[in-house]
Amino acid sequence: MAGNFKNRRLGAGRDFDWSSAQMFIAGEDIAENDIIIATGVNGAFATMVRGDVTNAAKCRGLMWVAKHAVPSGSRGLALPWRRITFATNGSSIGAPVWMTTAGDYTLAGPSTGLVHRRVGTVITAAVDGRIILHPYAFQPSEANQAGPAGASVVVYEKSLTAIDTEAIVVNPAMKVIDVWLVKTDNVGANPSTCVVSNGANPIESFDLNGVVVGAVMRMATIDAGELAFASGDTLNFETTGANSECTVWVSARPA
């Protein structure tokens, strides 16, 4: 069996998505821009089907993007990457794109399944935005693992003045694993606080009364019910009282 499924008439290249395409045989009906994966061999070509995070045979191998719609049993071209128009309003440049089922993908965070599989990146945030699908660049992460799910731990940082409010829109879905702060500028007055919240629901409240500049405070207790943030939820920071200046860090992993 040939070690490379690439058709010799397709020249090498990096500037166009089609110039590094692989010819394949569709193992099922495939739509244009579906995420696809090889599950077997048919003659000199790979047999490819739509990726699916709920199917063990369709979620853990090397993945591609379908250049055109391909009926089952027909030949098609698999691309290593592709830029496409996608509704990215409410997202941000650099945000991950996650595979779901039936070759599809979403910006709403990892879907329930056997793995969390990133397949692309937001490159323009707009109603008619743009994403680049490049699934070959990412490896799946087992959905039931205790560590980060499909991506590295994220640390959010906010510097607050006295009597201040700040917010971060979370994307994708995250689970908070730690919160800490450093007191800045002045010794905390009585009373003065810093509250970190999931929307309107506090995660941790720090009492800054008498806390000296440079002191580090870490959450002592936490409401487990407020740890999980859905994509689009707001991570809020609020300082109250005189001399409540501080810098806060929130550590979180993809949910």
How are the elements arranged and paired?
Elements lengths: L21 E5 L8 E8 L2 E6 L12 E4 L8 E5 L2 E5 L9 E4 L5 E2 L8 E2 L1 E7 L4 E5 L7 E2 L11 E7 L4 E5 L4 E10 L9 E6 L2 E7 L8 E3 L9 E2 L4 E7 L5 E9 L1
Parallel strand pairs: 1-3
Antiparallel strand pairs: 1-5, 2-3, 2-4, 4-5, 6-11, 7-8, 7-10, 9-12, 10-11, 13-21, 14-20, 15-18, 15-19, 15-21, 16-17, 16-20
How do the helices and strands follow one another from N- to C-terminus? EEEEEEEEEEEEEEEEEEEEE
In helices, the fraction of residues equals under 10%
Query: Strand fraction band?
Result: 35-45%
The number of helical runs is 0
Gross morphology is: elongated
CATH class of the largest domain: Mainly Beta
Tally of individual domains:
3
Query: What gyration radius follows from the Cα positions, in whole Å?
Result: 23 Å
Fourth-level CATH superfamily of the largest domain: Nucleoplasmin core domain
Main sheet: which strands, in order across? 1-3-2-4-5
**Residue ranges: pLDDT <50 for 5 or more in a row?**
1-15, 145-150
Q: Care to describe what's here?
A:
- The chain is mainly beta.
- It folds into 3 domains: 17-79, no CATH class; 83-142, no CATH class; 154-254, Jelly Rolls (Sandwich).
- Helices cover 0% and strands 44% of the residues.
- It is built from no helices and 21 strands.
- The strands form 5 sheets. It has a 5-stranded mixed barrel with strand order 1-3-2-4-5.
- It starts with 21 loop residues before the first strand and ends with a strand.
